[in-house]
Write a structure and sequence with these properties.
366 residues, alpha/beta, Isopropylmalate Dehydrogenase, 2 domains, 12 strands, binds 1,4-dihydronicotinamide adenine dinucleotide, binds magnesium ion
């Protein structure tokens, strides 16, 4: 049956970048015969404006049923004074929580044309394509006991790193499944040298690997050494799987390997559905960028690359995802830049829709 895609443009530049994704989706329909059952819904401030909540029950239900959800961005100054319970961000949090999206995927991809944007040397990052899988729903950000209390005459702050083997096994499976659709290599990072949860993490990942994914190459690294290797020679990695805390740090560091926020896609995956594919929410890493909204300045590439991830990981269309990524590479190599991709060199930026049109033209030529 036709795969379903629920599009939630959201606020600020969300609808602007999503309009360019629609052009790309239309192209794959017409030129490649890829049919998607695309529907659209409201999230964030846009949903609040329409019915007083940042995500309606009806949209939540459609998200649960969809093969993939693609979200633009939520939030903006207009909604800053709202009560916490109806803030735009709550719409996104509800999606993540109710879909139980426990694996957060942050690719670090560096297109050759943008290699000079990185804070590292061109050689180190050019052509880089790695994926960090961060456990998102457990670990030290959630573990009990937690809190601040008084012991004797001083205060003590407590958080608990806690992982069950089930939580480790499921995120490990997500990482191994992804690796099979990529470079077939997983590096697991923890601190088994100093943490009990790290010892369990290493054991469970090793067990899941031996029992279910012996075809994938697995290695282990202490997370601190991993951080160093990520800066020294990131191309040694394919998929990195790690816990919530280390993943938070490592994925932000990896983002800096590649340059602009306007280029970074992401995904969050949950448990496999009846059809064997994971529940999935794809979204650019950036927010609603109110400072440039409604001016045609937004870079649509992060959202377009998020759709490419959906094709690869939810629609079994890795070749088409690669085709789309190559089209992005082509327009960048041709010198097209939205404003966020221009340094001091005084070139004229292209608009959001010019960038989208150029990517479609590059697809046509592919
Ligand atoms: P932001 O990511 O929206 O913007 C940070 C800076 O990057 C701004 O200068 C912006 O113009 C620029 N930028 C971001 N995306 C861009 C793109 N595609 N093309 C060109 N330039 C781009 O983060 P900020 O300013 O901290 O937050 C703005 C609003 O977005 C807030 O309401 C925040 O809560 C929300 N937000 C939403 C997220 C989401 O929906 N997942 C994530 C982060 C923030
Ligand atoms: Mg962070």
């Amino acid at each position: 049956s036709t795969p379903s895609l629920l599009i939630l443009p959201g606020d600020g530049i969300g609808p602007e970048v999503m309009a360019e994704v629609r052009k790309v989706i239309d192209w794959f329909g017409t030129a490649r015969g890829m049919q998607f059952d695309v529907s659209e819904g409201l999230v964030g401030g846009a949903a609040y404006d329409a019915h007083g909540a940042p995500l309606s029950d009806e949209t939540m239900e459609r998200a649960q049923q969809a093969d993939a959800v693609l979200l633009g961005a939520v939030g903006g100054p207009k909604y800053d004074q709202l009560d916490f319970s109806v803030k735009p961000e709550r719409g996104l949090l509800r999606l993540r929580k109710e879909m139980d999206l426990f694996a957060n995927l942050r690719p670090a991809q560096c297109f050759d044309a943008l290699a000079d944007f990185s804070s590292l040397k061109r050689d180190v990052v050019s052509g880089l394509d790695i994926m960090i899988v961060r456990e998102l729903t457990s670990g030290v950000y959630f573990g009990e006991p937690r809190g601040i209390h008084t012991e004797g005459n001083e205060r003590v702050g407590i958080n608990t790193q806690r992982y069950t083997e089930g939580e480790i096994a499921r995120v490990a499976r997500s990482a191994f499944e992804l690796a099979r659709k990529r470079g077939n290599k997983v590096c697991s990072m923890e601190k088994a040298n100093v943490m009990e949860s790290g010892i369990l993490w290493r054991d469970v990942v090793t067990e899941v690997h031996a029992a279910e994914y012996p075809d994938v190459e697995l290695s282990h690294m202490y997370a601190d050494a991993g951080a160093m290797q990520l800066c020294r020679w990131p191309k040694q990695f394919d998929v990195i799987v790690t816990d919530n805390l280390f993943g938070d740090l490592l994925s932000d560091a990896a983002a800096m390997l590649t340059g602009s926020l306007g280029m970074l896609p992401s995904a969050s995956l949950g448990a496999p559905m009846a059809n064997g594919r994971p529940k999935a929410l794809y979204e650019p890493v950036h927010g609603s960028a109110p400072d440039i909204a409604d001016q045609g300045k937004a870079n649509p590439i992060a959202c377009i690359l998020s759709f490419a991830m959906a094709m690869r990981y939810s629609f079994d269309a890795g070749d088409e995802a690669t085709r789309l990524e190559k089209a992005v590479e082509t327009v960048l190599a041709d010198g097209l830049r939205t404003a966020d991709l221009l340094g001091e060199e005084g070139r004229t930026p292209v608009s959001t829709s010019q960038m989208g049109d150029a990517i479609v033209a590059a697809l046509d030529a592919s």
